[in-house]
Design goal:
Length: 680
């Protein structure tokens, strides 16, 4: 189990460095990420490298028994680069330039940026590939973090080349994009622009392709640096830090290119439910590379600096969230950063060594956690034992977020809500994509899968035919991979296993909605009267009375059984919840999106139907459990003490007493293998 932080020694005089190593040893630090934002210090001018300080600190860390995750430093080019080559700077959709003075001011497609980055990484890798302190390589940092999309001329040229590789001919692109609409037909790839500022709605498939291009372009940068490191003879694992469910980068596609998954995660102490969002992110990281432990490369020891309000974590909360990550497969617990900065934009961001000094709760908790992690044995594989899977898909996220839909939907927010409804029931959950191997799951939940590829539809259908239970909720299977309607209406890809089609999506308008006319033919509406079916869609079904939101779809039931019907509004009496037996399995469809309580009720009923039960019954919602092989993690995410009965051996205390007393934000790792029993 690695323990450590980002370390930025260049921010401190050399006299501080030996003290840093001594304090790291006291805290139990085993690994630091070094050089993440050091390009300007390593390379003060083009063709000029200063290695003396970096040699010194790496040797000092090595002598102190601290291993190094060496970063390639390419995340923020130095000021001299932008001054010499302003064309490498990124631009927004309006054509405004992002200038130096912050961080990550570079156009990912820029040939100049790529040349400079490659020269830096080549020199760095050749110098340190064989250094015994370096056990991991950290490429760049949080790709796309502040600049999700670049619309510069460099991006324009690269986008055109990407499209030509994808479509080969302009006629194929015209067909996929539907360019006969609004006279958008192209006669050459050189006529295509990124989706820059335009008078009105931009072609949705062009926007979707631009998001695919952006993810691929960022991934190209990672692969370029990775291959340079490998060419220098480096045998250490190579990673880059992800950011949970992050919009611009399709991490399902990235996962195959990194040796180990790394993640940065910052739950909000303002939100008592934020541990559920953190659980979603950890489960996503575990699912990206099944069976392989991952690394939590950044979290905070206490308060942040970048939210509107930044409260401290409660006593014990930092350790509880760290235990949550370990329980879901993390083999490293690390922080941003080691020593709190005294200058710069992040000086109010907490660190392992606080600005307030060592006589602080933060430092005491840092040392305590380091001691606890040092006691852990080698942990088992990261298998969760989950029998329920939740589908989360980046391309669907990109497509469903477009404009000109029946209603606007926050896909990530809805995915979090569906996940929370399962998490509140203390179920083990895996997060998967539509083409994953699903045979091991008793229930697969597919929320708002607006864009469904043919491959995904075939995989989900085969899962049902082979005996699985598939639950699909509203606004799913609407378009294909080109964001185009399929021949035959809606719900075409899954119709055989769901037994329903859609006549109309039935958008529900919130009563407080206001609109205004901005083009010919529109009518200004200053208030929408509240009435039945306007803002919610109640329905009755086996899960009880449920309140639906956003949509009340008008279903065309073909050969499915109706389990529930809408009770109010324009769809009153029509089917809302259906079931079809197909092959050896069952397909369920819900024609609305429930509120939080409704999600819980529907999924509670479905998991019971699928024979899925929590490992420990009767737990309050603020207590969380997670399985990692034979290890059961139990966490109390509240300030109120709680006792739970789990049969097994406590990994830290060695106790086999079945009753575990969990104080405020208390946690335990219990090995259930020794008794041959699971938790009760």
């Amino acid at each position: 189990m690695h323990y450590g932080a980002d370390y930025n020694p260049e921010q401190w005089p050399r006299e501080v460095w030996p003290d840093d190593v001594r304090l790291m040893q006291e805290a139990g630090v085993t690994l630091v990420s070094l050089g993440i934002f050091s390009w300007s210090r390593i390379q003060p001018a083009e063709g000029v490298f200063d290695w003396e300080w970096l040699d010194e600190i790496i040797d000092l860390l090595h002598a102190g028994g601290i291993q190094v995750d060496l970063a390639t430093a390419t995340a923020s080019p130095p000021p001299w680069a932008a001054a010499a080559y302003p064309e490498m700077l990124p631009q927004d959709a309006d054509g405004s330039t992002f200038w130096p003075g912050s961080r990550q001011a570079y156009a990912p497609s820029s040939p100049i940026y790529r040349r400079l980055a490659a020269e830096l990484v080549t020199a760095l890798a050749e110098r340190y590939a064989q250094h015994p302190a370096v056990v991991l390589w950290h490429v760049n940092n949080e790709y796309g973090c502040h600049l999700h999309y670049d619309f510069s001329d460099a991006a324009r040229d690269a986008f055109r080349a990407w499209l030509e590789r994808k479509y080969a001919t302009i006629d194929r692109l015209n067909h996929a994009w539907g360019t006969d609409f609004w006279s958008q037909r192209y006669t050459g790839f050189d006529q295509i622009q990124p989706p820059r500022k335009a008078p009105y709605s931009i072609n949705p498939t062009s926007v979707l392709d631009f998001k695919r291009f952006t993810s691929d372009t960022l991934l190209e940068l990672f692969v370029m640096e990775r291959d340079i490191i490998r060419a220098a003879g480096a045998a250490q694992p190579i990673t880059t830090n992800f950011m949970g469910a992050f919009p611009p980068a399709d991490y399902w596609k990235w996962a195959a290119e990194v040796d180990v998954i790394s993640d940065d995660n910052y739950p909000d102490p303002n939100d008592p439910e934020s541990f559920r969002g953190a659980a979603f992110a950890r489960e996503l990281m575990r699912g990206l590379k099944p069976g392989v432990p991952w690394l939590l490369t950044e979290q905070s020891t206490n308060a942040l600096n970048w939210r509107p309000t930044n409260p401290p974590k409660a006593p014990g909360q930092m350790a509880a969230l760290s235990a949550q990550a370990i329980g879901r497969g993390a083999d490293a617990i690390m922080f941003f950063q080691w020593r709190q900065s005294r200058r710069g934009s992040e000086k109010f961001h907490s660190a392992m060594v606080p600005q307030a000094g060592l006589e602080t709760r933060t430092w005491r908790e840092v040392v305590e956690l380091g001691g606890q992690l040092a006691q852990l044995p080698s942990l088992p594989d990261v298998s969760s034992g989950a029998r329920v899977a939740l589908v989360f898909d980046w391309e669907n996220w990109w497509a469903i977020g477009g404009r000109d839909h029946p209603i606007g939907l926050d896909y990530l927010g809805l995915a979090h809500r569906w996940h929370a409804a399962l998490h509140r029931q203390h179920l083990a959950i895996d997060i998967v994509n539509t083409t994953a191997e699903l045979s091991g799951y008793a229930l697969v939940v597919v929320p708002q899968q607006y864009l469904l590829t043919d491959e995904g539809a075939a995989n989900l259908s085969a899962y049902v035919q082979a005996g699985g239970n598939l639950f699909v909720s509203a606004f799913s299977d609407v378009v294909d991979e080109d964001d185009a309607f399929r021949e035959g209406g809606f719900l075409v890809g899954l119709r055989d296993v769901l037994g329903v089609a859609i006549e109309d999506f039935g958008a529900l308008v919130p009563p407080e909605a206001l609109t205004s006319a901005d083009s010919a033919g529109e009518i200004s509406t200053h208030a929408v009267p509240e009435g039945p079916g306007q803002s919610e869609a109640p329905l009755d079904g086996p899960a009880g009375r449920i309140v639906g939101q956003y949509l009340a779809e008008e279903l065309l039931v073909q050969d499915a059984e109706v389990l529930g019907r809408f009770t109010d509004g324009r769809t009153a009496g029509r089917a809302a919840f259906t079931r079809k037996r197909s092959g050896a399995g069952t397909g369920y469809y819900l024609a609305t999106i429930p509120d939080d309580d409704g999600m819980w009720e529907v999924l509670r009923w479905l998991t019971a139907e699928a024979g899925i039960r929590p490992e420990i019954e009767g737990l309050p919602e603020h207590v969380e459990i997670a399985r990692r092989g034979s290890i059961l993690t139990v966490i109390n995410h509240s300030a109120e003490p709680f006792s739970v009965t789990v049969i097994g051996t406590d990994l830290l205390s060695g106790s086999t007493e079945p009753v575990r007393e969990l104080g405020a934000f208390g946690w335990a790792f219990v090995d259930t293998q020794a008794t041959g029993q699971k938790g009760i």
